[in-house]
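Fig. S4 source data, part A: sequence.
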Amino acid sequence: MDMSVFDLFKIGIGPSSSHTVGPMVAARRFLLESGMLEQAVGVEAHLYGSLALTGVGHATDKAVILGLMGETPQDVDPSAVEDKLAEAEFDGVLHLLGIKPVPFSAKTNLVWHKASTLPEHPNGMRFVLHLQDGSIIERIYYSVGGGFITAAGESQARAPETDAAPVPYPFDTMAQLLEHGRRHGLSIPDMLRANERTRMSDEELDAGLDNIWRVMRECICHGLVTEGRLPGGLDVRRRAAGLWKQAQQAQQQPLNALPHDAV
């Protein structure tokens, strides 16, 4: 199992790794792989299966459009998302990868196939790029969970890096990892850190972990002070801020006096 901590803990816009992060990554990857951006005159995104059935509540439509704009889940500014989408819809123009303008409307260029599923996975997407000469480029991608995507026919397993050094504590099961620990007298964090150091320096690893923790803290703090409804159209009430206020008020209240008969 050659998986980094940065594969497991991804920084990205929510609410879902499979329905939001994955589709955004796939849309951007499609345009990057097309190699024909300058010849583009239009684009379509078709959503299938679970993405079509529950996509609106998980912001799949917004994620796809942002990905076509060239945004990435880890770098997009959440506070600017609605303005970006509204401007594109109002103008009727989408700048592919932030460069090539093409006509676009979410009502017509984003197609929901709620009764159909693509063969390899329930979370399927089909992108179509229309070119000046009347031809098209078409690709299918799947959002397979955790923010990972695959193209049609592509293995879900990450291709091994040919020039990467072998990790000192390889494992495919937890039993194998625990056996390494018993044999070498090391903890799980020690072994995983040693594996990570085959990919990056201590400084890079620490900086990456610090960044993940910083984003986690910012998300928690934002939730504790933000009231109202969650975005997505499902009318889900935000609860964290109210619970936090209750907890703070409970801490400020003096303890009740003991009963007179307490010993």
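Fig. S4 source data, part B ends here. The mean pLDDT is 90.
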